[in-house]
Protein: Esterase
Amino acid sequence: MTGVLNGAFETIGFDALDGRRLLLHRLQPRSGVNELGPVLMIAGTSVRAGIFSPPLPRTLPRMLSDEGYDVWLLDWRASIDLPATDFTLDDAAVYDHPAAVATICAVTKRDRIKAIVHCQGSTSFMMSIVSGLLPQVSTVVSNSVALHPHVPKLMWVKMPLAMAALRPFVTELNAQWGLHAPGAVPKLLNFAMRAVHHECNNSVCKMSSFMYGTGFPTLWRHENLTDATHEWLKGEVAQAPMSFFLQIQESIEAGELVSSDRHRDVLPATFTSKPPQTDARFAFVTGERNATFLPSGMAKTFEFFDAYEHGRHSFRVLPDYGHLDVFLGKNAATEVFPMIIDELGKD
Structure:
């Protein structure tokens, strides 16, 4: 596992509430610092928990550990380090996140934890927490997208066309097809990607952009990455199932997250129809130049929470940052991470 199992992390297997085997990776506080309690970090789809540990001198998990936090990185069912599955965000909201939080609380003997959630790790976590399934969580830092997935206008055209054309033929999209395209449809997508994306020589980077938006690139700003991180990303982005993309398409069209039909006994059809069932404080963060999900979506989610508890929650737009470079950027350790640590400390 690239970026996680480097000797400092302890890996703990546990079962989601439907029995699927998941992983947590624990980095305990640096010796001699005050214990600040557990913080759970959840990445998005098509990646692994190790995406938070790029080849940089200072990563967010390490800085949190140095600060005194007990850091836990989650490989949920979207992780590329686990067997691929035909999941929806609802599955993670109902099965994965409650089980992960309960496991952390049991191991640490703590009844409250904090969380840093990104992209679809954030959307699925938000589904869970506003539905009252995560009462142990006291503070959440959410990056890029939460309850309102707003996307660039071109995606309103691209996504439904792509879903209609591809769903009969493939069960997933995979950024690794930029390197190895097995079959006719992956080869066709590889050809189309190479025809329109000329922004770099990293085929996984370009296929990721082709899959997830309309930017050149989409998931990060090239100028924010070191050459080593850009090269490392070749092995860090892979598959996501069509079931996930279909749910996101429906949510984009609705202007907010919608649940699938799998868990209507637990989750509402939409997640803003009633007050959030949580007492957690939220810090919403996004990059000003986010080409995957527009900052207007995060502003909308902030407004929803602020309407119920005015002045308690926060919203920040990070100048010159995009989507995932908030965690991978060469200057993130000085420009972003101190702000995240500060938000975690506000109870």
